[in-house]
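Now for our specimen.

. . .
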Amino acid sequence: MDFFYGIRSGNSSRSAFALHEAGVDYRGHALHVPLGESRTPDYLALNPMGKVPSLIDGDVELWESNAINWYIAEKHPEAGLLPTSVDGRARVQRWLFFQAAHVSPACMSVCCSTNARFQGFWGVVGDAQTEEKGRRELARYLPVLEAALAHRDWLEGDFSLADIAFAPHLWFLVEGGFDLSATRAVQYWLTRLVSRPAWQKTAAMILKD
């Protein structure tokens, strides 16, 4: 299995987190996206979007982090990253859509203005209007997570892909100084997530300076 990931990439971190949780043996290929390493002809043949991450497993070629994670979970059911019931799997997928369509974009709107390491690596400079829009959106989205976590450690009871999905961009958000104290359950959930050995391996591999 070959895993192509970007340094300081939240989406790459999401899939690395799943790979490490599942205990998968893989060959890692680090790409420096700002230097154009994801725009080479060979890589574009694998991922026409020129983005990270991507995965090759025999004849299987995948891009989009949540699709990669779903494949990992299906191929390694012993890792317990997906519920066994149809309704449980549908609920996990709901959280993946919520993360990708709503929470992560809002996080990035804020991070581009507040996270100095993110700004320096990616060469981005946020603006006050975009940041404020992101904060307004998070004020809607974080309470949804807070309610789900009010009486449980993980979004669907047991640790799953649903929890993995949110870790990277919430981590970037907090690294940039965002205060999660208004949503204590979310704050403690993120602490549990980043304390997991699989996340620690991911952070050392992808999020280091």
